Amino acid sequence: MSRIGQSPIPVLEGVTVEIKKNLVKVKGPKGELDQKVDPSITVKMGDGAVVLSRPTDNRQHRALHGLFRSLIANMVTGVTEGFSKRLQIVGVGYRAEMKGNSVVFQLGYSHPIVLTPPDGIEIKIDSPTDLTVSGVSKELVGMIAAKIRSFRPPEPYKGKGIRYWDERVRRKAGKSAA
Question: Which sign does the torsion angle of CA 106, 125, 118, 149 carry?
Fold first, then answer.
């Protein structure tokens, strides 16, 4: 039995869940999200909770059961609280600044890197070396944060680059004097 898939998803006050065949739409105070669900998984609305069930106990159905339960639970959390990821820029002269609705990164390259966030994503610059990516979709927030990190991933010798706030960079010793 899938322990994740079996537990019901509580729907809080102010959140509406609309189920049409294999499409689940969730609306809340922060926004609106929708997710297609595999046709073999049944989604039903019960007393204040969304319940998912699967037709058989084969491996594929068990995997999909837990997956879609997690995705729908993340949608409910996203439209009520939202998701955010903090990033830290480490390095002399490395910084980020807002220009209009775009973010301009100076990361030691010969050119600045300009990123315009997609709809539903907000990038807030706390200081020139700290930024927060937030939005209602957990997937989109993680994807944009990973894209920003990929501009200059942390390197192991000096630790320079863009890292997640709680990320530990393992440092190497480098060349030793002979």
Answer: positive
**For the whole model, what pTM was predicted?**
0.88
Residue 84 makes CB contacts below 8 A (sequence gap 6+) with 132, 133, 134, 135, 141
Residue 43: which of 63, 17, 62 has the closest Cα? 17
CA dist 57 and 63 (Å) reads: 10
**How far apart (Å, rounded) are the C-alpha atoms in residues 87 and 104?**
15
- Residues 73 and 35 sit within 8 Å (Cβ to Cβ): no
123 and 60 together in one domain: no
Q: How far apart are CA 174 and CA 79, in angstroms?
A: 47
Domains identified in the chain, total number: 2
Residues 158 and 90 in one domain: yes
Indicate the pairing of strand 23-27 with strand 32-36.
antiparallel
pLDDT digits (tens, 9 = 90+) for 166-177: 989 999 888 875
The verdict on residue 172 lying in a domain is no
Task: Please name every residue paired with 131 in a beta bridge, in sequence order, or none if there are none.
Answer: 87, 125
Domain holding 89: CATH number?
3.90.930.12
